[in-house]
Amino acid sequence: MDTMHRSRERGFSLIEMLVVIFIVAVVSRVATPSLLELLQQYQLSGAASQVAFEISRAKMQAAAQNRVVRVARNSAQSAICRQTALTTSGPWTPASCDDTTDVIELPGDAVVSGDLPTFRRTGIADASASLQVALGDLSKSIDVNILGRVTVQ
After folding, report:
1. What is the pLDDT of residues 57-95, one digit of tens each?
2. Which of 40, 89, 92, 149 could form an S-S bond across to 83 if both were Cys, CB 3.0 to 4.6 Å?
3. What's the CA gap between 42 and 65, in Å, rounded?
4. Cβ neighbourhood burial of 59 (10 Å; 0-12, 13-18, 19+)
5. Dist CA 127 CA 138 (whole Å)
6. Is a pLDDT exceeding 70 seen at residue 6?
């Protein structure tokens, strides 16, 4: 009788193990979509911050080099670059973002759409600009006023 009692005290039963596995499976099934959405929001915030930073760099470059600088996107709208010229009508260097290695790739499958700013030699924008950075169903708005102030919403 003592041997039977000792064998029951060793380890867990099969039913207990199955219950624990079931609970872990249910919790991970519930948590996975929210983790994926959190990752997508993180990538979108990173992409919007990169675009805003490049716009600010373009403004500073225009004033520092006494040149016209604009922010442009590649044909797939998944990367941006800064282009310079002596006048607002060009010619632009590089000719396009597809023709340069100095391009900023956006994280994930993020794309940029909308008006991109052009800065005069003084660092003042030609016009205010509004653009969007989108990733899946999520998007962030970036506004640039005439003075070059960048706001991410």
Report:
1. 999 999 999 999 999 998 888 899 999 998 877 788 888
2. 92
3. 34
4. buried
5. 27
6. no
Cβ(63)–Cβ(121) below 8 Å: yes
Average pLDDT value for the chain: 87
H or E, element range at 111 = strand 111-114
Tokens of 129: 């600009």
| CB-based contact 78:22 (threshold 8 Å) | no
Residue type for position 47? A
pTM, whole model, 2 decimals?
Answer: 0.77
Structure tokens at 42: 């993180």
Q: Which two three-digit tokens encode residue 54?
A: 């490049």
In angstroms, the CA 152 to CA 143 distance is 7
